[in-house]
């Protein structure tokens, strides 16, 4: 797990220990397990190599099932939406198409830099 997740785990364990003492049951194990599953899901996101045509650079991102079920079916996602799913890529990428047979594969593109 990354440092940010480890830090969150330590803080949550402290909180859960206090909660366990007050409530009489342990939630630390459950939360730690959920954090680990969350971290593993994000490691399972697959990023294709980039490819291009004369106007755009493209890539596709394949999501694991547990994340794919949170992809909206009614619209293309904003950058905030796909980042909230755990997709990590540089700025400028746009979710431009939904491929209905494979909704777990997100299709992205961004304009190629203009030649001077």
UniProtKB/TrEMBL annotation:
Superkingdom of this protein's organism: Eukaryota
Keywords of the record: Cell cycle, Cell division
PROSITE patterns in the record: CKS_1, CKS_2
Coiled-coil regions, chain positions: none
Molecular-function annotations in GO: cyclin-dependent protein serine/threonine kinase regulator activity
Family matches, as InterPro entries: Cyclin-dep_kinase_reg-sub (IPR000789), Cyclin-dep_kinase_reg-sub_sf (IPR036858)
Gene Ontology process terms (BP): cell division
Similarity field: Belongs to the CKS family.
Function: Binds to the catalytic subunit of the cyclin dependent kinases and is essential for their biological function.
PANTHER family from the UniProt entry: CYCLIN-DEPENDENT KINASES REGULATORY SUBUNIT/60S RIBOSOME SUBUNIT BIOGENESIS PROTEIN NIP7
Quaternary structure note: Forms a homohexamer that can probably bind six kinase subunits.
Protein name per the record: Cyclin-dependent kinases regulatory subunit
Organism name: Sinocyclocheilus anshuiensis
Lineage per the UniProt record: Eukaryota, Metazoa, Chordata, Craniata, Vertebrata
């Amino acid at each position: 797990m990354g440092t940010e997740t480890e830090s969150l785990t330590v803080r949550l364990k402290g909180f859960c220990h206090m909660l366990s003492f007050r409530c009489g049951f342990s939630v630390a194990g459950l939360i730690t397990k959920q954090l680990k599953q969350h971290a593993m899901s994000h490691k399972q996101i697959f990023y294709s190599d980039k490819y291009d045509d004369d106007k755009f650079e493209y890539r596709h991102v394949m999501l694991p099932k547990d994340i794919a079920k949170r992809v909206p079916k009614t619209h293309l996602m904003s950058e905030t939406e796909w980042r909230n799913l755990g997709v990590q890529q540089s700025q400028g990428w746009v979710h431009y198409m939904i491929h209905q047979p494979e909704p777990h594969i997100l299709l992205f593109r961004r304009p190629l830099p203009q030649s001077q």
